């Protein structure tokens, strides 16, 4: 069982994939308030939930901290309009201040859209009403099967009730304020027939009022992710051929374009603080996310430090680190 670590107020929120903010050089900023998840999907790319084997820590960020740093990020990126995208290396629906987070984001003048990405486990009509009143503009809802037994199997969770989630999806589709996009993961050999059922379902309920109704995702095997038995990863070429065929059959756009479909455009990125192979002195502030990692800070960025062997994080100590990953301001360092 992973332990819960509350991110201290003096910890930067840029630099880690499991919490805080992620800027990939566009007018969309990902907001990751927690890494917790109540499901254990068999294909989970980030090995989240109760069945996790690689995690040793789950993170949670205080609401004020998140909003404060989000405002700074907008300024650094010089944005006059921004898409706030609430997601997680888990499921953000587990964040106990989710409604307040949406409310605070909608109070920010530059925020144009607020999207929540979720598998919907824990959604209720009441929560949707609250999120609507707070200013949520879209839910990207992952439903991977409509058959109840198969959906339970894929979610890795006996209590998962896809029927209830589908009813809530229908309820969201009727909202004038919140749009809904249904985003299944295609697991070849497992949910092929379900994907077509999900397309018909999304069209029937009227998903996609302002964006396309569906965002079918490709299953990708990740190093630390879960790999379902018997599922082979298809090539991108084969994936697009599959989508094209479904597009023609159902007369719906499934090959999506960030600019055309979501108005996501390139813009000034938050500057990198470290070059690759650069050395720095970092202060260890807590346990790392995955086993064998530490959490550290240096120069206003958070860094995942990988020590040789599995050692308890020497919290409070300073260590010399060499940066070995810096893409999108997400930093991994090894002890120098
Ligand atoms: S895929 Fe999403 S909902 Fe499923 S276990 Fe992973 S993080 Fe949780």
How would you describe this structure to a colleague?
With 336 residues, the protein is an alpha/beta fold. It has two domains: 3-262, Aldolase class I (TIM Barrel), CATH 3.20.20; 279-335, OB fold (Dihydrolipoamide Acetyltransferase, E2P), CATH 2.40.50. It is 26% helix and 22% strand. It contains eight helices and 15 strands. The protein has helices at 63-77, 98-106, 125-134, 148-155, 162-174, 192-205, 236-250, 258-262, and strands spanning 3-6, 20-23, 28-32, 57-60, 82-86, 111-118, 138-141, 179-182, 185-186, 217-218, 279-287, 294-298, 301-306, 318-325, 332-335. The strands form four sheets. The chain has a six-stranded mixed beta sheet with strand order 2-3-5-6-7-8. Helix 2 links the parallel strand 5 and strand 6 (111-118). Helix 2 (98-106) packs parallel to helix 3. It is globular and about 60 Å long. The two termini are 30 Å apart. The mean pLDDT is 97. The structure holds iron/sulfur cluster (SF4). Iron/sulfur cluster (SF4) binds next to loops. Iron/sulfur cluster binds at residues 37, 39-41, 44, 46, 48-49, 90-91, 119.
Largest sheet: 6 strands, mixed
The CATH topology of the largest domain corresponds to TIM Barrel
Mean model confidence by pLDDT: 97
Helicity level: 25-40%
What are its keywords?
336 residues; alpha/beta; TIM Barrel; OB fold (Dihydrolipoamide Acetyltransferase, E2P); 2 domains; six-stranded mixed beta sheet; five-stranded mixed barrel; 15 strands; 26% helix; globular; binds iron/sulfur cluster
């Amino acid at each position: 069982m992973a332990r819960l670590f509350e991110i201290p107020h003096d910890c930067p929120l840029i630099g880690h994939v499991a919490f805080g903010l992620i800027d990939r050089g566009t007018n969309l900023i990902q907001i990751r308030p927690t890494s917790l998840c109540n499901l254990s999907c068999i294909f989970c790319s980030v090995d989240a939930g109760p069945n996790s084997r690689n995690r040793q820590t789950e993170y949670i960020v205080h609401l004020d901290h998140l909003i404060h740093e989000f405002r700074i990020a907008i300024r650094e990126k010089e944005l006059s309009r921004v898409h706030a995208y609430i997601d997680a290396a888990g499921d953000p629906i587990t964040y106990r201040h989710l409604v307040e987070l949406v409310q605070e984001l909608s109070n920010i003048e530059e925020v144009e859209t607020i999207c929540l990405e979720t598998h919907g486990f824990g959604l209720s009509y009441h929560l949707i009403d609250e999120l609507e009143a707070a200013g949520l503009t879209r839910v990207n809802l992952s439903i991977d099967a409509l058959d109840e037994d198969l959906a339970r199997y894929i979610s890795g969770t006996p209590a998962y009730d896809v029927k209830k989630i589908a009813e809530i999806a229908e309820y969201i589709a009727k909202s004038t304020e919140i749009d809904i996009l249904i985003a299944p993961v295609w697991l070849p050999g497992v949910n092929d027939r379900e994907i077509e059922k999900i397309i018909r379902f999304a069209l029937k309920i009227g998903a996609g009022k302002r964006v396309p109704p569906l965002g079918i995702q490709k299953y990708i095997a990740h190093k630390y992710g879960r790999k379902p038995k018997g599922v082979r990863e298809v090539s991108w070429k084969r994936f697009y051929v599959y989508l094209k065929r479904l597009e023609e059959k159902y007369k719906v756009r499934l090959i999506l374009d960030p600019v055309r479909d979501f108005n996501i455009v390139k813009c000034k990125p938050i500057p990198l603080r470290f070059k690759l192979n650069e050395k720095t002195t970092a202060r260890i502030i807590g346990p790392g996310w995955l086993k064998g990692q530490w959490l550290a800070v240096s120069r206003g960025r958070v860094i995942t430090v990988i020590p040789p062997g599995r050692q308890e994080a020497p919290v409070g100590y300073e260590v010399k680190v060499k940066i070995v990953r810096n893409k999108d301001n997400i930093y991994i360092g090894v002890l120098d």
